[in-house]
Amino acid sequence: MAAVEKTTKQPQNKHVSAPWNDPKAEPYIRIENVTKKFGEFVAVNNVSLNIYRGELFSLLGGSGCGKTTLLRMLAGFEVPTAGKIYIDGVDMAGIPPYDRPTNMMFQSYALFPHMTVEQNVSFGLKQDKYPDSEIKQRVAHMLEMVQLMPFAKRKPHQLSGGQRQRVALARSLVKQPKLLLLDEPLGALDKKLREATQFELMNIQDRLGITFIVVTHDQEEAMTLSTRIGVMNEGQIVQTGTPQEIYEYPQSKFVADFIGSVNLFEGQIIEDEQDHVLIRSDEAGGDIYIDHGISSAPGARAWVAIRPEKIRLTKQDLNEPHNCLSGVVKGIAYMGNLSIYLVQLDSGKQIKVTMPNQVRAAEFMIDWDDRVTITWHANSPVALLS
Amino acid sequence: MTNRLSWFIIFWLIAVFAFLYAPIISVVVYSFNASKLVTVWGGWSVKWYGALANDRQIIDAAILSLEIAAISSTLATILGTIAGYVLVRFPKFLGRTAFSGMVSAPLVMPEVITGLSMLLLFISMEQLIGWPQGRGFTTVIIAHVTFTLSYVAVVMRSRFLVLDLSLEEAAQDLGARPLKVFFVITLPIVLPAIISGWLLGFTISLDDLVISSFTNGPGTSTLPMVVFSKVRLGLDPKINALATIIIAIVAIGVIIATVHIRRLERQRQRDEQMAMRAIAAQA
Ligand SMILES: Nc1ncnc2c1ncn2[C@@H]1O[C@H](COP(=O)(O)OP(=O)(O)OP(=O)(O)O)[C@@H](O)[C@H]1O
Ligand SMILES: [Mg+2]
Fold first, then answer.
1. Domain A261-385 has CATH 3.40.50.1820
2. Which domain holds residue B260?
3. What is the reported pTM?
4. What distance in angstroms lies between residue A233's CA and the mean position of ligand 2's atoms?
5. CATH number of the domain that B165 lies in?
6. What gap in Å lies between CA B223 and CA B238, rounded to an integer?
7. B45 part of a folded domain
8. Which of B246, B78, B224 is nearest to B152 (CA)?
9. Which amino acid residue places its CA nearest to atom 11 of ligand 1?
10. Interval A307-354: pLDDT, tens
11. Sign of torsion, CA A282 A285 A287 A288?
12. Is the shortest distance between the CB of A68 and ligand 1 below 6 Å?
């Protein structure tokens, strides 16, 4: 907790300052203690969330953790069992989907099978009785953006999976609503198109100030796109924060493990001061010194999380009192720009280390079965209490 | 081995087709029989078709049957579609179980019982409220709607069951109100099922003998009733001619539908190729 408050972060999207750090800022979407039960099953469990105008908020979480259900409550297809949802200060209780200032892109796309691509995209604009010429022009622009112009006259069943996804995306974007809910918007696209569409999404958000809530399974996508990320687990939001906060300062083992790859050591706190904490870990086979306090009782159980890229690997024998362990290389995966090393520590625990391939092989080469020492900087790991 | 097996299959194929179509073919062939005796071949002739065209009784009955079938299947399709929709999209309402059972009851009820109970209902209604007065066109229509409705409701219900709910949600999400969603999204998507429901109702109504016999009145003899009464007086070659005409109409309908579907398929392939070329040109 303390760690997060101490750091001041630059948000990714330069046009949005950090309203979530400003206590006076009025949230655009307020989700207050929302719970959704299906019979006895709790799909969304007491979620509270503030989202600000112009944000691109990503929801990350495993399959079945309640992301879609949360979006459906915002769109008005599910009624919360408890709690309130406000959009732009208006209580959404009792407001039907067709009167809400939201559009949703469905995970299943939900394209109208009896309409062409063009008719699908223009459907929403027709409901609002825009003049024909404007509809035509906006639809054309949208189709151009998602590169579906040549398919305008086709029916959905004549399209590939990725093409259908783009139609669904275009259909939800074309009305430029106040709040856009995207359920896995880019999952089926190839890399190039995906990047282009990501770029276009950020562009739209910039230009029109639309607020986005995006569900995604792709962490890299969430990292590059989002102003903030909310990590969900079993119906609850376990942490919200900017991509950097989530990645660098996870607050629980679940978040640390879910986002990116991480090495976890279980241990016991033996010193907890204002400016550092010392954790003795049998699992690591040594003491770990971290240069920030976590304010807990000495003797408490704690976990240390450290990312593979923050660990240094050397064949030299360093004799430091802490943050220094030794082991044997058990595996190397060459990835081109970097290599992943699997190191078996003397304690028996296997850890992952990634190192950039700065030079081409030669003297720094570390080989299978080499004895190595691993170290890290005292500000690299995070101590977790749960 | 495989050869023997394939001969075996061919034999059964022929046997099954013969079983299905031999009666129909014999009807068609005998409709061109010159002899008045249905079972004796007397050379080729089309005279029974001429006789048929002059038989006012059969012609009138055919027209009446078509009218009844068209009106009752249209009404049954409207009601059956609504019933099917309600049963799928409204999981909870008072009396749902009873409603669901009653919609499909005429499917399993013997026709004689349905016909008899309709007759009793009409008689007691006439005594109580004075309507319907006697039996005739209206009562036959009502009876036909009642039992063809069940078939349509079953067809529509299974169609709505597999209809993705998120389509209707997406339409609402884009700003369409529920009634508009029903007419602009739901109905067009299930239109093929509605058409098959209508055709099913039409054929069943056209075909019905038992229920019509119970509920009809003077001057409303349907085609099956006329055919049946004629056949009881001895086989009439005109009936063969009538059957042949009906078979021809059905066959032509099937051929047109097949050709139409083929044409659509070819059109689709052409569109696809054009789109691919457009993309290639773009790249
Ligand atoms: N209508 C419903 N009735 C009963 N249970 C439901 C219903 N809708 C969702 N659930 C349950 O609620 C849980 C959350 O579902 P949800 O669709 O929100 O998951 P999700 O996070 O979107 O998963 P995914 O990433 O796989 O799409 C699941 O366990 C699901 O089985
Ligand atoms: Mg989902």
1. no
2. 57-282
3. 0.81
4. 13
5. 1.10.3720.10
6. 13
7. no
8. B78
9. A43
10. 999 999 888 888 788 888 999 999 998 888 888 999 999 999 999 999
11. negative
12. yes
Decide if B28 is inside a domain.
Answer: no
Ligand 1 atom 18, closest CA: A66
Query: Which of the 8 DSSP states describes residue A293?
Result: -
Number of independent structural domains in chain B: 1
Residue in chain A closest to B165 (alpha carbons) equals A110
Which part of chain A has CATH 3.40.50.300? 2-101+177-256
Min distance A168 CA to chain B CA atoms (Å): 10
Q: Is residue B2 part of a domain?
A: no
**In whole angstroms, what is the distance from residue A226 CA to residue A363 CA?**
41
Tens of pLDDT, residues B181-235: 999 999 999 998 999 999 999 999 998 999 999 999 888 899 999 998 888 887 7
**Is any ligand 1 atom within 6 A of the Cβ of residue A65?**
yes
What CATH homologous superfamily does A2-101+177-256 map to?
A: P-loop containing nucleotide triphosphate hydrolases (3.40.50.300)
- What contacts B27, CB < 8 A, 6 or more positions away? B240, B243, B244, B247
- Predicted confidence band of residue A4 (pLDDT cuts 50, 70, 90): very low
Is residue A366 classed exposed, middle or buried when 0-12, 13-18 and 19+ CB atoms within 10 A define those classes? middle
Q: Least CB-CB distance to A110: which of B164, B191, B271?
A: B164
In this predicted structure, what is the pLDDT of residue A361?
A: 64
A67 Cα: distance to centroid of ligand 2 (angstroms): 6
Read off the pLDDT of residues B125-164 as tens digits, 9 standing for 90 and up: 999 998 888 889 999 999 999 999 999 999 999 999 999 9
In a domain, B161, yes or no: yes
Distance from residue A305's CA to the centre of ligand 2 (Å): 29
